[in-house]
Design brief:
Layout (H helix, E strand, L loop, with lengths): L9 H10 L2 E4 L5 H15 L14 E4 L2 H4 L4 H4 L2 H10 L3 E11 L25 E7 L11 E2 L18 E2 L7 E5 L4 E2 L9 E10 L8 H4 L2 H4 L4 H6 L24
Antiparallel strand pairs: 1-7, 2-3, 3-9, 4-7, 4-9, 5-6, 5-8
Helix pairs in contact: 1-5
The protein binds 2-oxoglutaric acid (AKG).
Length: 257
């Protein structure tokens, strides 16, 4: 069962991830909060150009450096259900690619891919990436809901082809969808008349380089104001015994100056 109820536990999500590679939990944000986030990110996106290639989407606006631009996602990034799942799957992790994705009308479906493909790791391997997709519109087949290939997280030398069965991740705004880094998926085609907003908060094992360089993307004067757990997720952490030190010390010390 990859769509759970609002009261889903870490164990429920882990069971879905094991079977299908993804799990949907509705009702994390109520409608009003989801709408507030949608309004703020839509305003931010007004200054953002459309994508530069088919993967980003020529009709799609992507908001990068999210944690410099809004405080409304701090709670999503550190939600107890999310951290509980990540603790089990990745153990020690940080944010990799936090991105607001407004798929615009007329955008065709994105190529299916898996998020850990950016790391040259031979399959099979332990999970090193987990992505949380937060829809701030109702995701539908018409407006570009994420497309997934259930079970493909276990594929070793296989890639999707024309015969591959694809599931459309329809879900209400305010849900969270987890998927593991080996799962084949992609953004859907938007055949509606308004942009579809989803925020991906992708996390990676802390021994790997995150896709976005948050240390440069989010200035220290902002990071200083954030909860310690979020600072850690933005790169102010040390993977034992000492990956990530600065001048021989924990990077958190830099925030004390
Ligand atoms: O927007 C989506 O539904 C998924 C986007 C995605 O997978 C990506 O850009 O890597």
């Amino acid at each position: 069962m990859s769509t759970l109820t609002t009261t889903a536990t870490v164990a429920d999500v882990l069971a879905d991830l094991d079977t299908d590679g993804y799990s949907i939990v509705p009702g994390i944000f109520d409608r009003a909060e989801a709408e507030r986030i949608r309004a703020e990110l839509t305003a931010i996106a007004e200054d953002v150009p459309c994508g530069r290639n088919a993967f980003e989407g020529f009709h799609t606006r992507r908001i990068y450096a999210l944690f410099r631009k809004t405080r409304l996602l701090d709670g999503a990034a550190t939600h107890p259900l999310v951290l509980g799942v990540l603790d089990e799957v990745l153990r020690h992790y940080q944010l990799s690619a936090p991105t607001g994705i407004l798929i615009g009308p007329g955008e065709p479906a994105q190529v299916l891919h898996h998020d850990d493909a950016v790391y040259p790791l031979p399959r099979p391997h332990d999970q090193v990436v987990v992505t949380c997709m937060w829809p701030f519109d109702d995701f539908t087949e018409v407006n570009g809901a994420t497309r997934l290939v259930p079970g493909s997280h276990r594929w070793v030398e296989r890639s999707p082809d024309d015969s591959t069965a694809v599931t459309i991740a329809e879900m209400p705004a305010g849900s969270v969808m987890f998927y593991v880094g080996t799962l084949w998926h992609g953004g859907g085609a938007n055949r509606s008349d308004r942009p579809r907003l989803g925020v991906v908060l992708e996390y990676v094992a802390s021994w790997l380089r995150p896709q976005e360089n948050h240390i440069l993307g989010v200035p220290p004067e902002i990071v200083r104001q954030l909860p310690q757990r979020l600072q850690e997720l933005l790169g102010y952490n040390v993977y034992p015994p000492f990956l990530g030190y600065v001048d021989g010390r924990h990077p958190r010390r830099l925030l004390e100056n």
